[in-house]
Protein backbone atom coordinates (compact mmCIF):
# COMPACT_ATOMS: atom_id res chain seq x y z
CA UNK A 1 0.00 0.00 0.00
CA UNK A 2 1.20 3.53 -0.73
CA UNK A 3 -0.39 6.86 0.13
CA UNK A 4 -1.54 9.70 -2.07
CA UNK A 5 -2.52 13.09 -0.66
CA UNK A 6 -5.52 14.89 -2.18
CA UNK A 7 -5.72 18.63 -1.46
CA UNK A 8 -8.78 19.53 0.64
CA UNK A 9 -7.83 23.11 1.58
CA UNK A 10 -5.09 24.90 -0.33
CA UNK A 11 -2.28 26.88 1.29
CA UNK A 12 -3.89 30.12 0.07
CA UNK A 13 -7.30 29.22 1.55
CA UNK A 14 -5.77 28.27 4.90
CA UNK A 15 -3.60 31.39 5.13
CA UNK A 16 -6.48 33.71 4.21
CA UNK A 17 -8.78 32.16 6.81
CA UNK A 18 -6.13 32.32 9.55
CA UNK A 19 -5.73 36.04 8.85
CA UNK A 20 -9.51 36.53 9.26
CA UNK A 21 -9.65 34.58 12.54
CA UNK A 22 -6.60 36.43 13.91
CA UNK A 23 -8.29 39.76 13.12
CA UNK A 24 -11.47 38.62 14.87
CA UNK A 25 -9.50 37.47 17.94
CA UNK A 26 -7.58 40.77 18.01
CA UNK A 27 -10.89 42.67 18.03
CA UNK A 28 -12.48 40.45 20.69
CA UNK A 29 -9.48 40.79 23.04
CA UNK A 30 -8.84 44.52 22.44
CA UNK A 31 -7.24 46.08 25.54
CA UNK A 32 -6.32 42.67 27.02
CA UNK A 33 -3.45 40.21 26.73
CA UNK A 34 -3.84 36.64 25.45
CA UNK A 35 -2.08 33.64 26.94
CA UNK A 36 -1.93 31.24 23.99
CA UNK A 37 -1.64 27.55 24.77
CA UNK A 38 -0.39 25.53 21.85
CA UNK A 39 -1.44 21.90 21.97
CA UNK A 40 1.50 19.92 20.59
CA UNK A 41 2.39 18.51 18.29
CA UNK A 42 -0.36 19.17 15.77
CA UNK A 43 -1.14 22.72 16.91
CA UNK A 44 2.35 24.10 16.35
CA UNK A 45 2.08 25.34 12.74
CA UNK A 46 -1.34 26.90 13.29
CA UNK A 47 -0.22 28.54 16.56
CA UNK A 48 2.77 30.20 14.85
CA UNK A 49 0.73 31.52 11.93
CA UNK A 50 -2.09 32.73 14.20
CA UNK A 51 0.17 34.32 16.83
CA UNK A 52 2.08 36.32 14.20
CA UNK A 53 -1.16 37.96 13.09
CA UNK A 54 -2.73 38.75 16.47
CA UNK A 55 -2.25 42.43 17.28
CA UNK A 56 -2.81 42.40 21.09
CA UNK A 57 0.06 41.28 23.39
CA UNK A 58 0.52 37.49 23.38
CA UNK A 59 2.34 35.13 25.72
CA UNK A 60 2.86 31.53 24.76
CA UNK A 61 3.03 28.17 26.48
CA UNK A 62 2.98 24.58 25.21
CA UNK A 63 1.28 21.41 26.29
CA UNK A 64 1.46 17.98 24.76
CA UNK A 65 -1.38 15.48 25.06
CA UNK A 66 -1.86 12.32 23.12
CA UNK A 67 -4.94 10.26 22.40
CA UNK A 68 -4.22 8.93 18.91
CA UNK A 69 -0.60 7.75 18.98
CA UNK A 70 0.19 6.55 15.45
CA UNK A 71 -3.37 5.38 14.85
CA UNK A 72 -6.14 7.07 12.83
CA UNK A 73 -8.66 6.33 15.61
CA UNK A 74 -8.72 7.94 19.07
CA UNK A 75 -7.87 5.48 21.83
CA UNK A 76 -10.22 7.40 24.13
CA UNK A 77 -7.42 7.64 26.69
CA UNK A 78 -5.89 11.12 26.91
CA UNK A 79 -2.36 11.33 28.30
CA UNK A 80 -0.49 14.51 29.32
CA UNK A 81 2.93 14.07 27.74
CA UNK A 82 4.22 17.57 28.57
CA UNK A 83 2.55 20.00 30.98
CA UNK A 84 2.55 23.82 30.82
CA UNK A 85 5.55 25.73 32.20
CA UNK A 86 3.56 28.67 33.59
CA UNK A 87 0.55 28.99 35.95
CA UNK A 88 -2.79 30.18 34.49
CA UNK A 89 -4.18 32.16 37.44
CA UNK A 90 -5.88 35.36 36.22
CA UNK A 91 -4.86 34.87 32.58
CA UNK A 92 -7.07 35.08 29.49
CA UNK A 93 -6.28 31.69 28.02
CA UNK A 94 -6.79 30.78 24.39
CA UNK A 95 -6.17 27.12 23.60
CA UNK A 96 -4.97 26.56 20.04
CA UNK A 97 -5.58 23.17 18.43
CA UNK A 98 -5.19 21.75 14.95
CA UNK A 99 -8.37 19.64 14.99
CA UNK A 100 -11.39 18.72 17.10
CA UNK A 101 -12.70 15.28 16.20
CA UNK A 102 -14.43 13.21 18.90
CA UNK A 103 -13.91 16.12 21.33
CA UNK A 104 -12.37 13.79 23.92
CA UNK A 105 -8.96 15.49 24.00
CA UNK A 106 -10.29 19.02 24.37
CA UNK A 107 -13.08 18.27 26.83
CA UNK A 108 -10.50 16.59 29.04
CA UNK A 109 -7.94 19.37 28.61
CA UNK A 110 -10.41 22.22 29.22
CA UNK A 111 -11.58 20.66 32.49
CA UNK A 112 -7.97 20.34 33.69
CA UNK A 113 -7.07 23.91 32.71
CA UNK A 114 -10.25 25.42 34.23
CA UNK A 115 -9.08 23.99 37.55
CA UNK A 116 -5.99 26.23 37.34
CA UNK A 117 -8.13 29.38 37.76
CA UNK A 118 -7.59 31.38 34.56
CA UNK A 119 -9.63 34.59 34.16
CA UNK A 120 -11.17 33.14 30.99
CA UNK A 121 -10.64 30.18 28.73
CA UNK A 122 -11.52 29.92 25.04
CA UNK A 123 -10.78 27.47 22.28
CA UNK A 124 -9.51 28.15 18.76
CA UNK A 125 -9.15 25.34 16.23
CA UNK A 126 -7.93 25.18 12.67
CA UNK A 127 -10.29 22.31 11.78
CA UNK A 128 -13.46 20.85 13.23
CA UNK A 129 -15.25 17.63 12.31
CA UNK A 130 -18.64 18.24 14.00
CA UNK A 131 -20.12 14.95 12.70
CA UNK A 132 -17.61 12.98 14.75
CA UNK A 133 -18.38 14.54 18.14
CA UNK A 134 -18.72 12.18 21.09
CA UNK A 135 -18.00 14.74 23.85
CA UNK A 136 -19.47 18.26 23.75
CA UNK A 137 -16.87 21.02 23.39
CA UNK A 138 -17.55 24.76 23.01
CA UNK A 139 -15.51 25.93 20.02
CA UNK A 140 -15.06 29.73 20.16
CA UNK A 141 -13.04 30.15 16.95
CA UNK A 142 -12.90 27.69 14.08
CA UNK A 143 -11.22 28.21 10.72
CA UNK A 144 -12.91 25.35 8.83
CA UNK A 145 -15.55 22.68 9.42
CA UNK A 146 -14.52 19.64 7.42
CA UNK A 147 -16.17 16.31 6.51
CA UNK A 148 -15.40 13.04 8.28
CA UNK A 149 -12.13 12.23 6.51
CA UNK A 150 -8.65 11.66 7.94
CA UNK A 151 -6.64 14.76 7.10
CA UNK A 152 -2.94 15.65 7.19
CA UNK A 153 -0.79 18.75 6.78
CA UNK A 154 -0.42 22.03 8.63
CA UNK A 155 0.69 20.10 11.73
CA UNK A 156 -1.52 17.04 11.29
CA UNK A 157 0.21 13.71 10.78
CA UNK A 158 -0.34 10.23 9.47
CA UNK A 159 2.04 8.00 11.46
CA UNK A 160 4.14 11.14 12.17
CA UNK A 161 4.47 12.04 8.46
CA UNK A 162 3.06 14.99 6.48
CA UNK A 163 2.93 17.52 9.35
CA UNK A 164 5.03 19.91 7.23
CA UNK A 165 2.64 20.08 4.27
CA UNK A 166 1.58 23.74 3.83
CA UNK A 167 -2.01 22.70 2.94
CA UNK A 168 -4.67 20.34 4.33
CA UNK A 169 -4.92 17.06 2.48
CA UNK A 170 -6.80 13.77 2.68
CA UNK A 171 -4.81 10.54 2.78
CA UNK A 172 -5.83 8.09 0.08
CA UNK A 173 -4.43 4.59 0.43
CA UNK A 174 -3.78 2.85 -2.87
CA UNK A 175 -2.51 -0.59 -3.89
CA UNK A 176 0.84 -0.45 -5.66
CA UNK A 177 0.06 -3.27 -8.12
O1 LIG B 1 -11.21 15.38 19.30
P1 LIG B 1 -10.31 14.19 19.41
O2 LIG B 1 -10.92 12.94 18.83
O3 LIG B 1 -9.83 13.97 20.81
O4 LIG B 1 -9.04 14.44 18.46
C1 LIG B 1 -8.31 15.62 18.44
C2 LIG B 1 -6.89 15.41 18.88
O5 LIG B 1 -6.21 14.50 18.01
C3 LIG B 1 -4.98 15.05 17.57
O6 LIG B 1 -3.94 14.81 18.47
P2 LIG B 1 -2.98 13.51 18.47
O7 LIG B 1 -3.36 12.65 19.65
O8 LIG B 1 -3.00 12.88 17.12
O9 LIG B 1 -1.54 14.13 18.80
P3 LIG B 1 -0.55 15.05 17.92
O10 LIG B 1 -1.15 16.44 17.86
O11 LIG B 1 0.71 15.04 18.71
O12 LIG B 1 -0.41 14.43 16.55
C4 LIG B 1 -5.28 16.53 17.58
O13 LIG B 1 -4.11 17.30 17.68
C5 LIG B 1 -6.15 16.72 18.77
O14 LIG B 1 -5.41 16.97 19.94
N1 LIG C 1 -3.85 13.68 11.47
C1 LIG C 1 -5.06 13.66 11.98
N2 LIG C 1 -5.23 13.58 13.31
C2 LIG C 1 -6.50 13.56 13.77
N3 LIG C 1 -6.95 13.50 15.02
C3 LIG C 1 -8.28 13.52 14.96
N4 LIG C 1 -8.71 13.58 13.71
C4 LIG C 1 -7.62 13.62 12.94
C5 LIG C 1 -7.41 13.70 11.50
O1 LIG C 1 -8.33 13.76 10.68
N5 LIG C 1 -6.11 13.72 11.10
UniProtKB/TrEMBL annotation:
Keywords: Cytoplasm, Glycosyltransferase, Magnesium, Metal-binding, Nucleotide-binding, Purine salvage, Transferase. This is Hypoxanthine phosphoribosyltransferase. It is found in: Cytoplasm. Its cofactor is Mg(2+). Purine salvage pathway enzyme that catalyzes the transfer of the ribosyl-5-phosphate group from 5-phospho-alpha-D-ribose 1-diphosphate (PRPP) to the N9 position of the 6-oxopurines hypoxanthine and guanine to form the corresponding ribonucleotides IMP (inosine 5'-monophosphate) and GMP (guanosine 5'-monophosphate), with the release of PPi. The keyword Metal-binding applies. Signal peptide: none annotated. It comes from the Bacteria. GO terms for molecular function: guanine phosphoribosyltransferase activity; hypoxanthine phosphoribosyltransferase activity; magnesium ion binding; nucleotide binding. GO terms for biological process: GMP salvage; guanine salvage; hypoxanthine metabolic process; IMP salvage; purine ribonucleoside salvage. InterPro entries: HGPRT, Hxn_phspho_trans, PRTase-like, PRTase_dom. One of its GO terms (cellular component) is cytosol. Its main location: cytoplasm. Coiled coil: none annotated. It holds the Pfam family Pribosyltran. Its EC number is 2.4.2.8. It catalyses: GMP + diphosphate = guanine + 5-phospho-alpha-D-ribose 1-diphosphate; IMP + diphosphate = hypoxanthine + 5-phospho-alpha-D-ribose 1-diphosphate. Pathway: Purine metabolism; GMP biosynthesis via salvage pathway; GMP from guanine: step 1/1; Purine metabolism; IMP biosynthesis via salvage pathway; IMP from hypoxanthine: step 1/1. The gene is hpt. The keyword Phosphoprotein does not apply.
Amino acid sequence: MSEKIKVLLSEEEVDARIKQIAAQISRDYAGREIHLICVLKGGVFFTCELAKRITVPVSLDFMSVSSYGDDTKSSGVVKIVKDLDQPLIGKDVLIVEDIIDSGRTLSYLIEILKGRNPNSIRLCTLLDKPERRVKDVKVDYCCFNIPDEFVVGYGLDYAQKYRNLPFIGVVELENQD
